[in-house]
Specification:
The complex is a heterodimer of chains A (105) and B (132).
Chain A: H1 3-12, H2 16-28, E1 30-32, H3 33-39, H4 44-56, E2 60-65, E3 68-73, H5 76-103
Antiparallel strand pairs in A: 1-3, 2-3
Helix pairs in contact in A: 1-5, 2-4, 3-4
Chain B: E1 2-9, H1 13-21, H2 23-29, E2 33-36, E3 43-47, E4 53-62, E5 66-73, E6 81-89, E7 94-101, H3 114-131
Antiparallel strand pairs in B: 1-7, 2-3, 3-4, 4-5, 5-6, 6-7
Helix pairs in contact in B: 1-2
Classes of the chains: A alpha+beta (105), B alpha+beta (132).
Chain lengths: 105, 132
């Protein structure tokens, strides 16, 4: 998997406000920066910055609708990050099972 | 980010340690052929019959307690990950903990990536709610 992208995803999600934002996007489908500003306890500028960070990580895409820009979640990169964790975890589950069988007299 | 597993084994730490660090023993359960120089800075090569080859570099060797190395797959451009295996003696045998961590995600995340998984796990549910 593209590790660089997983890195960007986890970097983007290292911030509590951005996680909150992602959860809101997941809940509402799409939002505008103005809507976010009414829900999140941060400034419009901070929201714009967080949206830019999530956009850079490929997690949100902006969509122009008339005069407003709506942001939508694109969960594919999240799936890749989870896939990394899941595959490495599954590998160790298998190896530890093998170790247990190996140690059985 | 990292993955962590813990298992209870019905064998004393000395035996588990040998299974983990003796190349011949490793060849019986871990990989198909193993070359491993078990000392800090030592190199290791794990080969599997499906053609997978992993190169390891040993970092920490604390006899019967802690074994840590970095490794990466020969093919592809996957960056090296760090593996740390710790053993603790228990009444029944040995508690083995393994942590494999990737060099991505800020270090501040180490050990607390679980919020990420929680969030990610909740996404399908959140999306269903959104579409309900």
């Amino acid at each position: 998997m593209p590790e660089g992208r997983a890195a960007a995803v986890f970097d983007a999600l290292a911030d509590g406000n951005r996680r909150h934002l992602v959860a809101l996007l997941a809940e509402r489908g799409s939002v505008t920066a103005t809507e976010l500003a009414t829900v999140l306890p941060v400034t419009r500028q901070a929201i714009a910055k967080h949206l830019a960070g999530l956009r850079a990580a490929g997690l949100v895409v902006p969509e122009r609708r008339g005069r407003e820009t709506r942001y939508r979640l694109t969960p594919a990169p999240l799936g890749e990050a989870v896939a990394w964790l899941a595959s490495v975890g599954a590998e160790w589950d298998e190896r530890l099972d093998a170790l247990r069988r190996h140690l059985k007299p | 980010m990292e993955i962590r597993r813990q298992v209870e084994l019905e064998a004393p730490p000395a035996e588990v340690w040998e299974a983990l660090t003796d190349p011949e023993r490793l060849g019986e359960w871990f990989a198909n052929t193993v070359v491993l120089d078990v000392r800090p800075g030592g190199e290791g090569i794990f080969r599997w019959d499906d053609g997978t080859v992993r190169h390891a570099s040993v970092e920490v060797v604390e006899h019967e307690r802690r074994f840590a190395f970095r490794w990466r797959e020969e093919r592809g451009d996957t960056p090296a990950t760090a593996v740390e295996i710790t053993l603790a003696e228990t009444a029944e045998g040995t508690r083995l903990t393994v942590v494999e961590s990737a060099p991505f995600g800020p270090t501040a995340l180490a050990g607390e990536w679980s919020w990420g998984l929680e969030l990610l796990a909740s996404l399908p549910r959140l999306r269903r709610l959104a579409h309900a």
